[in-house]
Amino acid sequence: MASTERKTYTIGTRKSPLALVQTDLVRRALQTAYPNCDLKVHGHVPTQIPDACVLGAMMPRENPRDVLVIKKGLPWMTLAELPAGSVVGTSSVRRTAQLARHYPHLVVQDIRGNIDTRLAKLDAEDGPFTCLIMAAAGLLRTGHENRVTQYLDSKNGKMLHAVGQGALGIEVRTDDEVMKDMVNKIGDMPTTYACMAERNLLRTVEGGCSAPLGVETEWIQDDNGKSLLRLRAIVVSVDGKEAVELEKDGDVESIEEAEAFGKQVALELIDKGAGKILEEIQRQKRQ
Questions:
Q1: For domain 46-62+164-282, which CATH number applies: 3.40.50.620, 3.40.30.10, 3.30.160.40, 3.30.70.100?
Q2: Would you call 212 exposed, middle or buried from its count of C-beta atoms within 10 A (0-12, 13-18, 19+)?
Q3: Cα–Cα dist 25/10, whole Å
Q4: Which of 92, 130, 193, 223 is an S-S bond match for 86, by CB 3.0 to 4.6 Å?
Q5: Mean pLDDT for the chain?
């Protein structure tokens, strides 16, 4: 792009406060890389990627973990400390299933709304909730870090996060080579590889975004100093009574290798019984 040429581009997003904050992160990164671009935010974008579009790049990932948020004034600091009968607010099947597996003494209740709405429901004096389970990234990006009581992962709280959680994907038209080049300049390859592996895992097990599938990815080094992608995954029945878990390290240096690695992990999960768990969930939904 010539430095004297000024282009106008439109960025699509939802209208929620979190979506607008996340979109502004992309806008500022693009304007830093391309000062001569005018970038406009468009407030309507479908949740499914249409055939004419492609995931062009992913921004550096925010903390992908879930977090525990305790109601103001209550003394507990971890999931393990919560007394029997405590009410945990979440609308996520994945979180509900993992809570049922590891904390069957807790009560899960559905909660809806944006971040501020859910926090208000949590803190209401006459509200039923003891705590919420939320995505760390949403709280951090909207300035609510002070509400985080506990960060949750495989070692702390035994909760694995959702596929792609904390990552910002930039969708572009398949035939727009100029925009592909632009977003690639601000993309983060470690994030992209990790998320592509997670996404292809989910796609292969055919669980859909509402499946009780938790993942956790991290970059590690082997004994020779080579970077490997470690992928942990769990598929849990909704009642928490059945689960299939797997941890695997992969040599990933391209999107193709990331997707192949995700598929490999998925097939191993299916071989261990994850497919049967998901089939039973789908059967119950049809009843």
A1: 3.30.160.40
A2: buried
A3: 14
A4: 130
A5: 88
Q: Where are the beta strands (DSSP E) in the chain?
A: 7-12, 37-42, 53-58, 66-70, 87-89, 107-109, 131-135, 150-152, 169-173, 213-221, 227-236, 243-250
Distances (CA, A) of 141 to 23, 112, 186, 206, 226: 11, 19, 18, 30, 32
pLDDT tens for residues 104-157?
A: 999 999 999 999 999 999 999 999 999 999 999 999 999 999 999 999 999 999
11 phi-psi bin (left φ>0, alpha ψ -120 to 50, beta other) = beta
For 53-93, write each residue's pLDDT tens digit: 877 778 889 999 999 999 999 999 999 999 999 999 999 99
- CA distance linking residue 61 with residue 57, whole number of Å: 12
CATH architecture of 66-152: 3-Layer(aba) Sandwich (3.40)
Q: What count of other Cβ atoms lies within 10 Å of the Cβ of residue 283? A: 9
Residue 136: what pLDDT? 98
